[in-house]
Design a protein that fits this description.
Four copies of one chain form a homotetramer. Chain A is an all-alpha fold. Chain A is built from eleven helices and no strands. The two termini of chain A are 34 Å apart. The first copy, chain A, binds a DNA duplex (21 and 21 nucleotides) through α4.
Chain lengths: 216, 216, 216, 216
DNA sequence: CATGAATGAGTATTCATTCAT
DNA sequence: CATGAATGAATACTCATTCAT
């Protein structure tokens, strides 16, 4: 369940001969896109922020859109990575006997990830409605990897009697919506008001648990 | 609880001497903004779509941003209107004795509203993270009107024993997140896959009810 | 056989609401393109030369290429116009009984036209090899109008015994090549050396006459 | 009268330590310039086509313009070479007693040369109007070598009574214009229509012969 | 009230060229 | 000798906005 390494390194992992300037471009783009939005950010702005010439951006990324996709594809993978990873089984089999323990572990893990990569997550959420290709990447990853895996997991807990017997996909959707919904409300819609993160996360977990608990 | 009138009329209600062209501009702007996003939409595009001259837009709306705000402010009011309305009391006192009945009524009502005004809602969600002033309008409306009102309502049901005893704001947030989270997931993030709306909405209601039910 | 009116007016004839700025843009574009070539001329250069903002060019002409075509299409028509015109028949029937008289009239007329519109002709010759669509316009006009007409004329003179009995198209091609070839050599390839225009034109006419004369 | 060797080798003859890459650059530049024109061709395009790094071009040719001149100077020499060569005298003295035989030999020879080097010829014709220095090279070569030589030849045939008594330069110009005019019409202006090369060349020769024949 | 010509700053992207490796 | 990262000026074109008609 390790995505402790910097996502910046992960983004650049696929490319070879990564230069210092390239890192700066990526960092600047993430900052700028998340602050002003993709469309409202100019490449000259990114260049200035990164301390490189504007042409340098286009040496590494054919278009502005290409730069966006090169940022977000790894984000998508990372976002769903832990669900997919082999060692996630341990979580299931060994320690997390109860659904509560499991949920708590997942929420903690993903919340930390989001908090560490809030800018990239914000960009992803903002841009996904406007880019068909981005949605396709997203759906591909989720459809092929995540739902299959989560179905197994939910079935496991349903059988154990920890979870209500509704279609797994709906259960997953309700849980995910609650978790990410909190993040969206907190960081995108109402970032200006005070939030007691710890308490709200705990309440969200309780809410999901109760919402998915089998009727006694 | 009536917002049956067209929101287009509502948007134009404040302005005087509303011309036919003005209506077309508003309609065109809503369509364009929701499809491509505010920043990625040009005023000339809106003009073309509306069938008016470029200058005409600026006769009615000082800037492009002004046009956005003129669209979204009424949307914000409308979005929270039913909660605020006087006749909402009747809902409370008379028919909706149980929290379930209340929730069902509210969800049904707001879902219909969102479905009718999905484009505007999409714009609101998309743009709110980038416009401080928009957020301020939003917070003002919510803070001053909605939460006070909802606190009363939640207290009412808490006292009745229908709802868990957690801070009303959190309860409200969890419910709202579930409802709007569904809408965002369905229309913004994953519009391409098939959704069984009726079933998902019912499950969402059950989920909220169970999530907020007092521990027996 | 009149194309005495300014070609600038002719170029702008098709467009409505022609503004002063538009005329200046056309004039500047002709000058710039003929001096430096289409590809080597920047739109900012044209704007400066025309004394307008760069955006103004694109209000009237969607692209730089569009501007080129809007210049050259009328040039193509004008270039072949006299051959096509009704009153050209008079030339044939009445005054120009001999091929020599006819040739002399045509050469004089087209030479004057080229001298008056040398810049546009230069642009046409320079750009035609690089633009398929331009060649299509050219071929269409020539194929449909010119060759049919000239075939009739040449047949007329062949029958009279003024002209050698070879395929009319070849005869026409040889004559045209001689005339335009002179212009190209004189203005495009070797503009720097001295030319005795009058003498060379006379020799060219004699050359064509002798070259096309029937073998006695 | 031999220019049988590849012109590519001739272009590179002057330079020392010619590498494989250099040959590829030259070949790529010829192809690209002739297809899109000098100004519209980018150095990166040439580099890609040649399979070399962008910098490599500039190692061998200081500027893009330098590359153009390095291509065209040999073309100019080659174009006029046979006229200048010593062994051309044999042509004159021995076999080609009549002007017709001489003309036929020259036309055949130059046509073959043009057909083999059509790309370079196209570039030369296209670029000469825009580059003073190129024109100077051209004029220098022609003035110093060609016209002197051709004057002698024409005088020879004039004296023999094969050729009309007009200024040699004009006669030469008329002949050259006819030959190259054919090539320009055929390859640059109207490459899209069908041409019966053999027949047209024969007619062109006949046309020149008749056009320059002394009046009986 | 509506138009659309005009603008100049700004857009993403390409350019020829340099230079450290 | 060859590379390709880096540049900054230039490119064609778009933008939101103004204003005379």
């Amino acid at each position: 369940m390790s995505d402790q390494e910097n996502i910046l390194d992960f983004i650049l992992k696929d490319e070879d001969n990564v230069t210092e300037k390239q890192k700066k471009i990526i960092a600047a783009a993430i900052e700028a896109f998340s602050e002003k939005g993709f469309a409202a950010t100019s490449t000259s702005e990114i260049a200035k922020k990164a301390g490189v010439a504007e042409g340098t951006i286009f040496r590494h990324y054919k278009t502005k859109k290409d730069l966006l996709l090169k940022l977000l594809s790894p984000m998508v993978s990372k976002l769903i990575a832990p669900i997919v990873l082999k060692d996630f089984n341990k979580v299931l089999d060994a320690e997390h006997h109860s659904f509560e323990e499991f949920l708590r572990a997942v929420v903690k893990n993903r919340m930390e990830f989001l908090q560490k990569n809030d800018a990239l997550f914000k960009i992803l959420i903002q841009e996904i409605p406007f880019h068909q290709d981005l949605r396709e990447i997203f759906i591909d990853q989720i459809a092929s990897k995540v739902f299959k895996r989560l179905n197994e997991i939910m079935d496991f807990y349903k059988e154990k009697g920890d979870v209500l017997d509704i279609p797994s996909m709906s259960a997953v959707r309700l849980a995910i919506t609650s978790i990410f919904g909190y993040f969206i409300a907190r960081h995108l819609i109402l970032p200006d008001i005070h939030w007691d993160d710890e308490a709200e996360i705990e309440r969200t977990i309780q809410f999901i648990l109760a919402g998915l608990a089998p009727k006694s």
